[in-house]
Amino acid sequence: MEHRSLLRLAVPAVASLLALTTACTGGTVQGRPGASGLRDPYFPKAGNGGYQVDHYALDLDYDPADGELHGTAVITARAEQGLSSFNLDLSGLKVEGVTVQGVGARFNRTGNELTVRPAEDLKKGEVFRTEVEYGGKPKTLTDADGSKEGWITTEDGGAGADGRGSARARAGAVGVGEPVGSMTWFPGNHHPSDKATYDITLTVPRGYEAVSNGELRSRTEGADGRTEFAWHSPEPMASYLATAVVGPYKVTTGRTPSGTGLYNAVAPGEAAASAGALARLPEMVEWGSGRFGPYPFGTAGAVVLPAGTLGYALETQTKPVFPGAPESEELVLHELAHQWFGNSVSPKSWKDMWLNEGFATYAEWLWAEDHGGPTAQQHFEAFLAGDTAVDEAADSAWDAFPPASPPGPDHISDEPVYYRGAMVLHRIRQEVGDEKFFALVRGWAADHRHGNASTADFTAYAQEKTGRDLKKVWDVWLYGEDRPK
Ligand code: TRP
Ligand code: ZN
Question: 396 with 283, same domain?
Fold first, then answer.
């Protein structure tokens, strides 16, 4: 991104003076501090400069009885500049120790920034390993838009529904991170532009399930009455899509017709109400692969939390979380569609959110179109007419602002990002026809698979791929302040 390279030119100029001083006093490498934020237009302090993470190995122990999380984060990263210090994002919790390349490092904390000063400067290009030992009671964050994220305890695991155990014994927790909540449960480079692979190992009291992204490598009952679940995510993941779920879940496993492994974890009280929508997941994975290209991950599935845990569903990678039994088949489809759009092709900044939500919403319209429901054209017209018989959101404030430019961080999940975002895609389809449109959608998912993309990347790609000048669509539907007609 443009502003990111500007940052690198401006801030380090001063910092290199300091590094020179260090060099004169015996330092061997001329490192300078990494930036404390990536200057995201909506969350300027999210993420950190000077390095890119390759891999997170989180080894976490959670005790539902006291709500404490303890463990280590081993972060393997590559220095993009000489580094005298660098930052990790971490909110709350206590840091007990930090090592870099196995050697004790100094650290300090201000706000959500953990600054690490290695004993020796890191060289540009060097791959280095940082180990953070930390713990405490993780917090729940309240976002600018009032929604909750971060670490959320589920005091009522559905106690009473099947009559076993007290509410306390059945308590659990979930970690969710859109847009910045992952910093409440592990230190990291918490911005979607820095994707990495993960190994998340969760140790919980016997009788609990512990669920995370990717594939379950092992489940080990310890002699100490605790069970260790080792989860592995081989594909890159943005940290906001990481999840950890602990509780008395009912686990079912299976496969899609073409062989993708499925892992569902459902709160006992939600099992009956979830069955119908979850039963269609295998078919949905196949349908998405046909429409959008191969499913981008090695596994699929879902987590159904105790009802009322959250105010929204989230497309956590490979296993979306639902706040209670999914209210509709379309919601399951929406979170699945994010696996292509948002999770595999991730936004470069939080301003690009419509690329996630517009595509996921349009996927719902396509699913309806292919399964005897309204066509996407009927959805599009319903929004223009405010016809709630076709879509109950049709009379919402979908026209309040241009989807590529939410008025602030408190509006990145508002209706225009979803519905007007989907309408942008339909306008392209109207202009270029089905053949070119679906080639565009599949090409977009393929060309940016496991990467990041911005709105500017999309508009340029759409024009190049379809061979059409779509400027009017962008001006009116994507960027225009007025309600499109
Ligand atoms: N991204 C989620 C989805 O569409 C929804 C979501 C996450 C959300 N966080 C939110 C919606 C906060 C409103 C407010 O699947
Ligand atoms: Zn969504």
Answer: no
Ligand index nearest the alpha carbon of residue 180: 1
Which tokens go with 251? 């686990």
Residue of 141, 143, 303, 312 to test ligand 1 pocket, by largest number of atoms within 8 Å of CB: 312
User: What pLDDT was estimated at residue 485?
Assistant: 87
What count of Cα atoms within 13 Å lies in the side-chain half-sphere of residue 259?
A: 1
- Cα–Cα dist 399/411, whole Å: 13
Index of the ligand 1 atom closest to the CA of residue 320: 15
Check whether residue 302 and residue 440 sit in a common domain: no
What does the pLDDT read at residue 397? 98
Residues 303 and 374 in one domain: no
| 356 Cα–ligand 2 center, Å | 6
Q: Is 355 exposed, middle or buried (0-12, 13-18, 19+ CB in 10 A)?
A: buried
Q: Buried b / exposed e across 297-314, counting CB within 10 Å, b at 16+?
A: bebbbbbbbbbebbeebb
- Which atom number of ligand 1 is nearest to the Cα of residue 145? 14
- For residue 249, the domain's CATH number is 2.60.40.1730
E strands present in 8-123: 32-33, 51-63, 68-79, 83-89, 94-100, 103-104, 106-110, 113-117
Q: Are residues 333 and 372 in the same domain?
A: no
CB atoms within 10 A of CB 188: 27
pLDDT reported for residue 30: 86
* In-domain check, residue 25: no
Going by C-alpha positions, the residue among 357, 340, 347, 360 that lies closest to residue 235 is: 340
Say what the pLDDT of residue 7 is.
Answer: 38
What total of structural domains would you count in the chain? 2
In this structure, which amino acid lies at residue 166? Answer: S
- The structure tokens listed for 177 are 């991170």
Based on the fold, state whether residues 239 and 293 are members of the same structural domain.
Answer: yes
Token pair recorded at residue 19? 């590094």
d(CA 463, CA 109): 46
Report how far ligand 2's centroid is from the alpha carbon of 176 (Å). 14
- Domain-located, residue 185: yes
Instruction: Report the chain (485 residues): mean pLDDT per 10 consecutive residues.
Output: 39 44 51 97 98 98 96 98 98 98 98 98 98 98 95 69 46 97 98 98 97 98 97 98 97 97 97 96 98 98 96 98 97 98 99 98 98 98 98 98 97 98 98 98 98 98 98 98 94
From the CA of 326, which ligand is nearest? 1
Distance CA 209, CA 219 (A): 10
In a domain, 87, yes or no: no
> Which ligand ends up closest to the CA of 411?
1
The residue among 291, 331, 60, 14 whose CA lies nearest residue 184 is 60
Judge whether 385 lies within some domain. Answer: yes
The pLDDT assigned to 170 comes to 63
Determine the structural domain holding residue 224 and report its residue range.
48-73+137-337
